[in-house]
Design a protein that fits this description.
The protein is of the alpha/beta class and 312 residues long. It is built from twelve helices and twelve strands.
C-alpha cells in the first residue's frame, strides 16, 4: 500500500515537534511539506522550530514554508506560558541551517492540491487553522480535491484549555475554524477529549530517554519542560501529547474511537468565543460534518510512538 501524502500545518510547540518526528519516522505517510503558522509562538519562531525538528530527524529534504503571521480578523494570542519563549524551550538547540522556502505556505497548499490527483492529499493542521482557511477562501476549487483534514483542536467533554469554553487552536482563529468546518471537506477531529488521555507519565518519558538517541533525548527533555504547566493546572500524572494524535490516527486509526457529528464554531459569544459546539448527542438536527474522536488506547498510542521515535 502506498504512503498517504500529507501536508503538516503547524506552530511548533513541543508536542507539534513530536508529531513531526512521528510522521518523519513512519513509512505509512509521505510528508510533502510542512507549513508554519503563527500560534503557540509568532511565525518567525514556528518556521524556525519546524526546521529544527526536520534537522533533528535527519530530514533536511523536507520543505518548510512560512505562512500567515496573524489570525484572519483578530490579534494573535500565543502560548509562551506553556511552551516557553521559543516554543521549544527545554533542551538547548542550535539554529537551523536548512533554508526556509521562498513560497508562501498558502500558495504551497493551493499549488500542491491542484497539482496532485484529487483525493490524494491529507491536510494535517496541528495549530490554528489560518493557513488552511486562507487557502480555501483564496482557491475554493481545492476543497473538493482534499482527501481528508485531520486536525488537532476543539473539545466537548473536556471543554476549554485557554478559556473555560475554548481549546487553544480553535480559539486563536475561530473565524478560520468556521471556514474549515463549513467547507465540506471530510474532517477528523483529535479533540482534548482524546489528547488528555495520552499523558507523558514518568515511565513513558524515561522510555524515550533510554533510547540513547538524540531524538529520544529531545522528546524526553521537551516533555520534561512542558509537563510542568499541565501537571500544575490539572493535577495529572503528566502532560498530554496533543498533536501526535493526528499522525497516530493516520498510521493506526483503530487506536481511536468517536462519532460522526455536527461541529460548529462559536465566533461571537461573550464567554464562548472559539468554542467547538460539538453535537455529541445529536440533538441539534444539524447534519454531521466531522468525525469527532472521543477516546483512545493510550498504551497502544505510546507503544506506536516509542517504536517510531526509536527508528530515528
Amino acid at each position: 500500500m502506498s504512503a498517504r501524502k500529507i501536508i503538516i500545518d503547524t506552530d511548533p510547540g513541543q508536542d507539534d515537534a513530536v508529531a513531526i518526528l512521528l510522521a518523519l519516522a513512519s513509512p505509512e505517510v509521505e510528508v510533502l511539506g510542512i507549513t508554519a503558522v503563527a500560534g503557540n509562538v509568532p511565525l518567525p519562531l514556528t518556521a524556525r522550530n519546524a526546521r529544527i525538528v526536520c534537522e533533528l530527524a535527519g530530514r533536511r529534504d523536507i520543505r518548510v514554508f512560512a505562512g500567515c503571521d496573524a489570525p484572519m480578523s483578530r490579534g494573535l494570542v500565543t502560548a509562551e506560558h506553556v511552551h516557553g519563549k521559543t516554543g521549544l524551550d527545554g533542551p538547548q538547540l542550535p539554529d537551523p541551517t536548512m533554508p526556509l522556502q521562498d513560497t508562501h505556505a498558502v500558495d504551497f497548499i493551493i499549488d500542491t492540491l491542484r497539482a496532485e490527483a484529487p483525493g490524494t492529499i491529507t491536510l494535517c493542521p496541528i495549530g490554528p487553522l489560518t493557513n488552511i482557511a486562507t487557502a480555501f477562501r483564496r482557491a475554493p476549487d481545492i476543497v473538493e480535491r482534499v482527501q481528508e483534514i485531520v486536525l488537532m483542536g476543539g473539545a466537548y467533554f473536556e471543554v476549554g484549555n485557554i478559556t473555560p469554553a475554548a481549546e487553544f487552536n480553535i480559539y486563536v482563529d475561530p473565524e478560520a475554524a468556521e471556514i474549515v468546518f463549513g467547507a465540506g471537506a471530510p474532517i477528523t477531529v483529535m479533540s482534548l477529549d482524546v489528547t488528555h488521555k495520552v499523558l507523558v507519565t514518568g515511565p513513558r518519558t524515561e522510555a524515550f530517554r533510554a533510547m540513547g538517541t538524540e531524538p529520544g533525548r529531545m522528546v524526553a527533555e521537551w516533555t520534561d519542560f512542558f509537563e510542568r504547566f499541565d501537571k500544575e493546572k490539572y493535577g495529572s500524572d503528566g502532560a498530554p501529547l496533543h498533536d501526535p494524535c493526528v499522525i497516530a490516527w493516520l498510521i493506526e486509526p483503530t487506536l481511536f474511537s468517536g462519532r460522526q457529528i455536527n461541529v460548529e464554531i462559536e465566533t461571537k459569544g461573550t464567554f464562548t468565543q472559539g468554542m467547538t459546539v460539538a453535537d455529541w448527542w445529536g440533538v441539534s438536527g444539524r447534519a454531521p460534518n466531522a468525525f469527532f474522536a472521543g477516546d483512545v488506547d493510550a498504551d497502544g498510542f505510546f507503544r506506536l510512538l516509542t517504536e517510531r521515535i526509536a527508528r530515528l
